[in-house]
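Bit of a strange request maybe. I'm writing a small parser for structure token strings and I need a real example to test against, not something I typed by hand. Could someone generate the tokens for this chain?
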Amino acid sequence: MSDKSQSSYLTYASTLVSLVVAYCLWSIAQWRTRSRGRPLPPGPKPLPILGNMFDMPRSRQWISYRDLSRVYGDILHFRIFTKSYVVLNSAEAMYEFLDKRTTNTSDRVQTPMIELSGSSLNLGFMPYGQWWRRHRRYFWQHFRPEAIGPYRQTQQSAAHMFLQKLCDNPSDLRKLIHFNFIKVALKVGYDVDVDDGDDEYAKIAKEALEGPVEGLVPGKFLRLWAKWQAAGERLKNVPFSRAKAKLASGEMTDSIAARLLQRLADRGITSSEEEEIVKDVVAIAFEGGTDTVLSATLSVFSGVSLHPEVLRKAHAELDAVVGPHRLPDFNDRDSLVYVNAIIKEALRWHTVTPLGVPHATTSDDDFRGYFIPAGTMILPNVWACMHDPDVYEDPDVFRPERFIRDGKLDSTVQDPAAFVFGFGCRICPGRYFAEAALFINVACALHVFDITQPLGEDGQPIEIKLGHTDSLISYPEDYRCTIKPRSTAAEALIRSHATAARQALHKPDSTF
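Reply from user aminoacidic:
Good idea to test on real output. This should exercise your parser:
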């Protein structure tokens, strides 16, 4: 290398080093200005540059975070490169930071996987802002407590039909629960009747619902994102186009899609943007509670099958309140204290969203004297709250009685629903609809079925592996059980009510 070339190389190298040093000094100065000397929350010591990349748990994160909180406290901080993550491990921390400071902690971290998995229309994943507010306002109008009354007959009829399908095919428990909610959502959202899981509309809905749950798992995402994205578009457009055509032809139809479209027409609104919001809002009804209801219902079946004393108490209450000649309805809800306690315990025992849906801060914040940078991902460890032995004695035991005192639901006991359905502005707006679906399906199933441990070929009970699937929406890993009608009279009740339910919901129409 010539002296001139060597001199040029040294000049470039010196300039580069100077720029790097200057940038580092500027970053440090900026950080000190923003943090004002406040420390980050405690957590494992990060490595230079990489941060806590190797400290983040790979599976069953909620358990690892709970264990780390016993060392560092209920607020944990992790850093990967320049990105901050904060895990909240107590109910107090979640209330203080996510509920009381909701204007700064209601954003969502956006990733390409959300868009490509067909999840971008989901209210739960939308970034906090005006676009989200417009969607939520439309959605809330049709799913607030005062608005869901007209949907109860549809939910009840679908529950009765679910009982017959389960009686005939008890091994298809998960599939039948899932289809039952899809059926209700299609009827309420678009006035579409389906009575078969192989119906084309049901197939569209099933594929579209896979994306939001499984699309955030990198391995599946790479293989199936195109399928999920296409299914999300079909879910949004195909049944909506049918509802719009029925309305335009003057055909009598009662659905959320029809009411929203009629409202736009009455106001003379022809904006394609407003119609796009209507499409999104009706499609959101599928994602608003389908998997919550599925996971919680599976937990009920799992819990009562492993605890026969719980099923006996449920049967006794249902026999006393409802009697042998009819099925439970929504008028029985307040009287079925033990059934409601079973649902609460299922939501607690098997936490549907162990780490909630992550929040994000929109600006720098101070929490308990710690500095929380803007853009920090906030993970509420809901599972840790639901398994806190200081709140729930013997938290790993399925015990509905913990929610009852003096024959009534005990309002002083921490309600799992306050955690399962989210926090602050991002609390699920479809929670009342989902809770109603949970109640009617669980109450009806417990009234007519014996639900016991599965038996092997030798007639002996099969040992069930308790655990959670490792995903955003978590399901019981092993929910096998034996499901049989309690008696011939119970089976007759199932079939007579299913026949009446089909007549109430009209003849299925599966044509496009």
